[in-house]
Design goal:
The protein is α/β, with parallel strands linked by helices. Helices cover 28% and strands 21% of the residues. InterPro entries: DHBP_synth_RibB-like_a/b_dom, Sua5-like_dom, SUA5_domain.
Length: 206
């Protein structure tokens, strides 16, 4: 059974956030809110977490996992980024965008696209997600909480708890956070390519 935490969306309870972070460090797979929709998350190097996310979402090895970062200091350790791309990404973050970039050696091999050696990164504009990342002190390995047979991500924490109680360890509920996943921009070749149009306005990258 998954632990269920009801977290205030604007003033997240410190004790609760600390408890969730401790669970992640202990190997927990969580569902948590972001500025686009709910996501699955686990510790960066958790092979079990990666395997469970793939199983829940029925993902193949070409799926780009996302490393959710608190700030640019974390993001810069995970991906190779030149000045022009840095400026473009900086202007759009924090926000509902995921950026695909060449990974550094800091990123575990099992997270990389098998051919491109790229990974997705993002900095969310969400109070609860940011509080969790600050407490954790490291990026969170994430994937949109979209089940294989669903047309849209789930938006209610209680529904997530009800449907995925047997496969999750923790559900963090801070209310409805929308159904649109992030806009995905591929910068791996230097120029922006819009891979998915979502919650972030893609116009700045067209």
């Amino acid at each position: 059974m998954a632990k269920y935490f009801d977290v205030h969306p604007e003033n997240p309870q410190r004790r609760t956030i600390t408890s969730v972070a401790e669970s992640i460090r202990s190997g927990a797979l969580i569902a948590y809110p972001t500025d686009s929709c709910y996501a699955l998350g686990c510790q960066l190097g958790s092979r079990d977490g990666i395997s469970r996310i793939r199983s829940i979402r029925n993902l193949d090895d070409r799926h780009h996992f996302t490393l959710v970062c608190q700030n640019f200091a974390q993001l810069g350790q995970l991906v190779q980024i030149d000045n022009d791309v840095f400026r473009a990404i900086k202007a759009a973050t924090p926000g509902s965008y995921t950026f695909i970039l060449p990974a550094t050696r800091e990123v575990p091999r099992q997270l990389l696209h098998p051919k491109k050696k790229t990974v997705g990164v993002r900095i969310p504009d969400h109070v609860v997600a940011q509080a969790l990342l600050a407490e954790l002190g490291e990026p969170l390995l994430s994937s949109t909480l979209l089940l294989p047979d669903d047309g849209e991500p789930m938006t209610q924490g209680w529904e997530i708890k009800e449907r995925l109680d047997h496969v999750l360890d923790v559900v963090v509920d801070s209310g409805d956070c929308g159904t649109e996943p992030t806009t995905v921009i591929d910068f791996s070749e230097g120029e922006p390519e819009i891979v998915r149009r979502g919650a972030g306005d893609p116009a700045r990258f067209e």
